[in-house]
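Propose amino acids for all 235 sites.
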C-alpha cells in the first residue's frame, strides 16, 4: 500500500524480552546514523514499547524500518526513524505545547507526551474514526494526563489548546494549512511532509520568527500518506 513493500501478515511470536533487545539495538543504530541526538528523545524511545502500537499481525517487524497499515482507510504507523527525525528537527522539549496532526497508532503522541513531560501538553488529531479508535485502545495502556486525542480534521488545527510551540503533520500536504500557521506561537516550529512533483515529497521545517515572519527549510525526501480533509489533496 502507498508504495512500500511490507511483509505478509502473520501472528506475533516474539517475547517481551526479544522486543526489549530489539528496541535497544534500534536506538543504538538511530544514534549512530544521527537521527537520534537528544537525551530526552532517547529516554522516551527507551521507555515506550513501540510494539504495543503495531498491529498484532505485523508486530514481529516492529523495529524494522517499515511503516505498517492500521485500521482505517489511509493510516499507517510510520518507520521508527521518522519519530526522532521529526522531534529533533523541531527541538521537541520538556514543557512544549505540541499539536500532532495524524494520530495513527498513537505511538508518536505517547512518545511526545513523555518528552514534553507533565509541564507540557500534547494534542493529537486523527480524521479517521477507525484509526482513532485503534489509537485510543493503544494509548489507554499508558497514563499520560497531558495527552489529548481528538477526532477531526487536523488541517483546521485545534483552537481550544492553541497557541502551540510546535506542530507536526504526519501526513503529506500540498500547501501548509494556514490555520496551523496561525495557531503556531511566534518562535514556534512546524514540520510536515509536503508533496512536490508527482509522488515526490520533501520534509519541510517552518519557523515562525518572533516578528511573525516565516522561514522554510527542506530537510529530506520522505514518503507519507496524503493529508485528507479541507486542506487535503483531492484524489
Ligand atoms: C502516517 S500516519 C500517522 C502515524 C502516527 N504518527 C503514528 O505514530 O502511528 C498519518 C495519519 O494522518 C491521518 N490524517 C490524514 N489527514 C488528516 C487530517 N486532515 N486530520 C487528521 N488526521 C489526518 C491519517 O488518517 C493517518 O492516520
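Proposal:
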Amino acid at each position: 500500500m502507498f508504495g512500500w513493500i511490507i511483509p505478509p501478515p502473520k501472528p506475533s511470536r516474539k517475547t517481551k524480552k526479544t522486543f526489549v533487545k530489539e528496541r535497544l539495538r534500534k536506538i543504538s543504530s538511530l544514534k549512530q546514523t544521527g537521527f537520534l541526538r537528544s537525551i530526552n528523545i532517547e529516554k522516551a524511545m527507551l521507555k515506550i514499547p513501540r510494539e504495543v502500537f503495531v498491529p498484532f499481525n505485523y508486530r514481529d517487524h516492529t523495529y524494522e524500518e517499515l511503516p505498517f497499515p492500521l485500521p482505517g482507510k489511509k493510516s499507517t504507523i510510520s518507520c521508527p526513524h521518522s519519530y526522532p527525525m521529526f522531534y529533533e528537527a523541531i527541538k521537541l522539549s520538556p514543557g512544549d505545547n505540541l499539536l500532532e496532526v495524524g494520530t495513527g497508532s498513537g505511538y508518536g503522541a505517547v512518545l511526545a507526551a513523555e518528552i514534553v513531560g507533565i509541564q507540557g501538553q500534547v494534542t493529537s488529531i486523527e480524521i479517521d474514526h477507525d484509526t482513532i479508535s485503534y489509537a485510543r485502545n493503544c494509548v489507554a495502556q499508558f497514563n499520560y494526563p497531558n495527552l489529548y486525542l481528538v477526532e477531526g480534521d487536523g488541517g483546521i488545527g485545534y483552537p481550544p489548546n492553541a497557541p502551540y510551540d510546535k506542530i507536526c503533520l504526519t501526513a503529506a500536504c500540498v500547501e501548509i494549512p494556514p490555520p496551523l500557521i496561525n495557531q503556531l506561537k511566534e518562535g514556534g516550529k512546524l514540520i510536515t511532509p509536503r508533496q512536490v512533483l508527482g509522488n515526490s515529497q520533501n520534509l519541510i521545517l517552518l519557523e515562525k520568527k518572533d516578528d511573525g515572519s516565516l522561514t522554510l527549510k527542506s530537510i529530506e525526501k520522505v514518503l507519507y500518506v496524503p493529508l485528507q480533509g479541507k486542506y487535503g489533496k483531492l484524489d
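The CA atoms of residues 42 and 110 lie 14 Å apart. The helical segments are 16-32, 39-47, 82-89, 107-116, 129-139, 178-182.
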